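Lecture notes, unit on protein representations.

Consider one protein chain, 420 amino acids long.
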Amino acid sequence: MASATPEDARPLVFRPQASRDGGSDFAFTALPPLSLYIHIPWCIRKCPYCDFNSHESGNRIPDAEDYIEALTRDLEQELPAVWGRTIDSIFIGGGTPSLLSPNSIDALLSMVRARLPLRPGLEVTMEANPGTFERGRFIAYREAGINRLSIGVQSFDAEHLKRIGRVHGPAEAVMACREAAEAGFSGWNIDLMFGLPDQDPEAALSDLNQAIELAPGHISHYQLTLEPNTAFQHKPPPLPDEETLWLIQTQGQRVLRDAGYDQYEVSAYARRGRHCHHNRNYWGFGDYIGIGAGAHGKISIASEQRILRYSKQRLPETFMSTAGTSECAVNPHYPNEADTIFEFMMNAFRLNEGFTWEQFRNRTGLLNTHIVGPLLDEARRRGLIETAHDAIRASELGRRHLNDLLMIFLSDAQPPEEDR
């Protein structure tokens, strides 16, 4: 069974231990869409399951103004590589961005607008956790330029929230969702986990039904997994078995479908017109600037006919002291052809619609597909993919065993890792 990822997950990034510089096999005829990701690295408390780049701060972010100044230097360092390109979406993630005041968010977005051309009406998402803001604050965020919220509810059950280390209770979760609706946002998402310690299908579906009753436009329904270098990985809690997890997932899919939510990705469900544009760009192998501590970036460079990948210094203090210099970027590298094929498939097969050959060529810059064909033939022989309306997508069997499908494209490289 393939584990799902939350909406606020960074794009899936393949980090081979040894990677040749890419470039010779690439030929971009057009550049992919471009998004901007901004990372806010602080949380009130680190959750035991979380492997994102987050650092405990208590109820207040230290040096918010200094951090925004560092983000400004970081963005300006990125501008030459994307000069003249328009930003299609913005995502402010973390950590807990709702620890920033509305005035700070206003200053942050004003800084971005002054330096980058933005598509009119673009989606601007901010993550918000219940228990990190006072009543009425969502209205101020909307006035600052946020038009979509992603609320980290995770569960509506008090005991489960306690066991996964969340700082809020069920009442605060409901209040946050109602605040989002009342503040007039055009779109908002509920993040909801299943497979929590000792959770049975009845409890998991109760959470899901409560989320549906609050009528968000989008629900991210994803499985809790034990990630490396987390408290849960070092001391695992008692999690449901594979059969129970599969039952929860399939029953949840049916409940969401009956409630009018279309599943368009492994863990993403949306009402009509409410897909997350920013995350679709990740899964569709688009480009994205990443600024902030630990942020990742992927930029297609047509003049050099290659793709640049990088991440930023993870520790907030180190990021702030190096922002705007070459020392801020960590492990900049150019994926080769094999790495790029794997990265594309790792993201594209998460989408229920899959991909077309045209999309593959446009997004990867790889016009010669002789390497991909035999791999797809093997996946088709094993029943893991299918073709529908010229699109290649994971079959029902492939969605259930997504890791097995992806391993076909891994070739002789090292296993994938996520560096968040």
